[in-house]
Amino acid sequence: MSGVIGFRGAAAALAIAAGVLSAGCGGVAQHTATVVSGVRGSTATSDTAGMPKAGPESSEAYRSLDAAHHPDWLGALPDGLGLGRLSVPGTHDTMAFHGDKAGPAVVTQQRVTAGCGFDDKTCVSRRSLRAQLDAGIRALDIRVRRDENDGLALQHGSFYQDAHLDDVLAVADQFLADHPRETVLMRVKAECDNTGKPFTCDDAGRVPPDPALIDRYLTADPHVWQPSVTGRAALPALGEVRGRIVLTQFDNIANGDQRGLPLDIQDDWHDPSVDAKWAAISAQLDKAATGDSHTLYLNFLSASGVPDPARVPERYAHDENPRTLDRLRAEPGRTAGLLMADFPGSALIDEIIGHNPR
């Protein structure tokens, strides 16, 4: 079970958090200067309103990532298989493990605390990411903020996630050293809007992350596949990028459209009804199965209607994850693209991986 506040306390927590987050996917917000700083050391049903009746329980599609174990699944696939023909389990806002009293509005992924001290949140962030990779997650969604030390802190809305981009790279590097035939796909997004308005977060000095700052991390890492960093790369075959971190997208970053890979993205995140969200997910599944094999199809299962306590990210996951699992089970063998989920369950991860050719 993750550290997300139970749903009986969600309304109270969200009353505190009201206005803290304006989005579950692209939005940003500010809580307090201390929280924002990011400096080291500092088969679902819907109710009559169309929203899922969610609870903290786990299921095969939802909130049971720790029951999945696929550390080597890409290694079994042919070297000549293009990335555009893969079906890949991923996580939306991969590192959003911490939210304090605003947990339901902020936290999107299960935490792993084993082996970490009570106050060692960085350990929790790193161990939780490794647990995702060991479970089979291969597509990451990393959100960054320029901090006061000119580093890249991990951020979800107003909340510093007690880790930096170098923590993500270190965990991914170690995973790839342990499993050298695997590949990790990673999106990097600048999280803050730098407007100075209440409930929005600012980069230090309101200077957003730029390519030079990001390159300081990426070009020095021997596991990063540099063609995806230095320019717009065509989709490689899997054999070209084994043991590598491949950058899929640089979002909200200057000249980001000149880097990464060819993408087609579904990200209808802003307060949709569960039926509207499902229609968007379903349409993107069709595109992934029938579209251009030289394009990566990203399909976000996530959404948020915060500060409405009936529309926190976890409630969408409780509904959309099982729907996606049912659809995939009904269509074995079809390419599914990159499926970016909140609180993915073990059977959902299993099923996505099972849609790859052998």
TrEMBL record:
Enzyme class name: lyase
GO biological process per UniProt: lipid metabolic process
Domain Phosphatidylinositol-specific phospholipase C X: 79-250
Keyword entries, A-Z: Signal
Listed InterPro entries: PI-PLC_domain, PLC-like_Pdiesterase_TIM-brl, PLipase_C_PInositol-sp_X_dom
The UniProt record lists the keyword Signal: yes
Region described as Disordered: spans on this chain: 40-61
Catalytic activity of the protein: a 1,2-diacyl-sn-glycero-3-phospho-(1D-myo-inositol) = 1D-myo-inositol 1,2-cyclic phosphate + a 1,2-diacyl-sn-glycerol
Molecular functions (GO terms): phosphatidylinositol diacylglycerol-lyase activity; phosphoric diester hydrolase activity
Listed EC numbers: 4.6.1.13
Extent of the signal sequence: 1-23
Name listed for the protein in its UniProt record: 1-phosphatidylinositol phosphodiesterase
Organism name: Nocardia aurantia
